[in-house]
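Annex B, item 7. Sequence and structure tokens for protein A, then protein B.
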Amino acid sequence: ATYIVLFTIFGAVLNVSGTGKFLVDWSLAAVGRSRHGAGAGRAVTAAGLLLGAVSGSGVANTVTLGSMTWPVLKRAGYPSNMAGAILSAAGIGALICPPALGAAAFIIAELLKISYLQVVVMAAIPALLYFLSILLMIEADTRRLGTRALDLALPSAWELTRRQGFHFLALIGLPIMLALGMSAFRAVFYSILVAIALSFIDRRTALWPRRLAVALSAGGKSVIAVASTTATAGIIVGVVTLTGLGLKIAGLIVALAGGQMFLTVLYSAVAVLVLGLAVPVTASYIIAA
């Protein structure tokens, strides 16, 4: 709760300052142009990765992606069910996208007694593999379904970078400050200040008091979902602990694995997968840990 408040505000500030739209446009310009229909799907996936890096919220990321890129997928001829699958898969990936990650990342750092930077580093490879898998499925399915290429009325990625590339500074600043040894709390606080300052480079996105109030309000509202999730997780953890269910399941996993580390990890992964069908990510991690 201490950290996620600032991170949700950071994501809201970036969205209101135009960073969200820039990242989507840049993704479309960079990988959206293609001779066949995979371009639109690639762009949505790339945008999900970039937006997820600053939002840390799967729901918020999916909503943002859907509102901005659904018309593009529709024009490219993607069936509704496939477009929805791409948007939800790319959107929910925000939970494992460094540096913002989801609320569970802060709990991981707390319970394992490691720095938040270590969690960010550990999440990098799974995040890249996850989005790579989405891209590979898009490549296979679009050729089978016969989606079409789009003529996007956008400048080149280089031209967009030249005009509005300052938006990237807010993204790379946070991991740099973490790598320099700053606490997550201080790093994200300074990142918010940097994002606000950068917004004034373009008058159309400048965060004057009224627009800044909108960003702070949106960030505050996003915390409500986190608060309710952690409160519910606390109740579930209490039930699991007091009934001894957690210890029984842990003992069962160890017994079935016969003392073998690989099988213990494998069975634990299956248990977490089943648990994740019923409870949100944060609650699932707390119970599993």
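Protein B:
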Amino acid sequence: MSDSNKKESSELKKYFDIEVLPSDTQPIVESKIRKIAKTMKAPGFRPGKVPIDIVKQTHELEVQSDAINEVINKKYLEAIEKQNFQPAGPPNIQPLVDDKNPDKKSDKLVFRAEIELFPEISLPNLSELIVKKAVSEVTEKDIERTIETLQKQKIVYSESEKGASMQDKVSIDFLGKLDGKPFKGGQAQDVSYVLGSGQMVPEFDKLILGMKKGEQKLDTITFPEDYPAKELSGKAVEFDIKVKSVEEGRLPEIDEKFAKEFGIEDGSIDKLEKEVEKNLKREVESRCLSKTNNSALEALLQASEFDIPEVMVKMESNRLAERTKATMKQQGMFAEQTNLPPEIFLERARRRVKLGLLVNKVVELNQLNPNEDQVSMVVKEMSGVYEDPEAFKKWFLQDPKRRAQAEAIALERNVALWIMDSAVIETEKIDAAELLSDAAKGTEVGSRDE
């Protein structure tokens, strides 16, 4: 490794050169050629009896490339260990060319390795942080609203000859064209969904309003500027839509039969309301806790300043792009429209990386890793909505990925409590409907949600 060309363009970036000599690669090449020769087949020769010169002619370039990569990897690891570097992500290693003599021949190859290190993090003065503690109460109106939602879950649809209205179920065929040309994911047949359900963008729903069974129309919508698929955001798209059916929904009566369908064995409406109230209080309490914890983490985030490794931001933005693609496929309309550039997630990724680094620093300094009881408490809270909570807990903890989710939540709770122990606490009263609306929208919680 040569130190002569070291340079630094930021506090976190480090550069160093890696030299690969023939004496480094030759033993590896010879070993690999001998191994290939033992099993190589060629016309006119028995397996393993192919002359070594023929083996080299066939495989030497491939083996030479593999050997160079092995040497680079070995010398890279030796370099970061020697200099006690802690890379925040994989290195960027590129061959170096002498700009003054680009055609100059040399026995040695030189590569430049660029890495980013983890930043030094200094925690702020916690006594200067302000944390909003969320509190909320469940009212009769909240209970009524929830029972109305339960009604909608049991809605019965029947064919209608009237024009489609919001909350009606429609079955449609559609073909979309961008700049006069069909685009990937812009065509589907027999798509059945409820108008206003959020499955399609609101602008698309409005095209169908008033259309009757058998009707067809050609019209244009402009996609929202924040639409996830960049190719469509803010663009005017022409749709040819055919309505194959319209079904009007009918809400069930809130009676004994209705109560039994939601687990009230004797059909008592009073018991149903009490069960709804109990579930609402549990959910509101959970949302208040999450919102308070988020406020504590956000206060820590805003008060902390340090450089963030761009390599970590890029990795996180790629992960967010892939997760969004999967969500879009599940939602339906543009299942094939998956060209989401990671760049649109950079701001969100940067925030998540910064918060993750902060949380890790706090945990490291204060030994805040969750114990088994704290992880079990998180899973117990999750299990409250299931008929057999114990079976759910057992199932949840069996899978390492699911368990990791519970551990991450418990860890961030510990960090939030640590912050709140020294911070200024201000009570914030929030309407229960607002809390539950945030939950329905999937408001992001913490730094490690999956």
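Comment on protein B: The first helix runs from residue 22 to 37.
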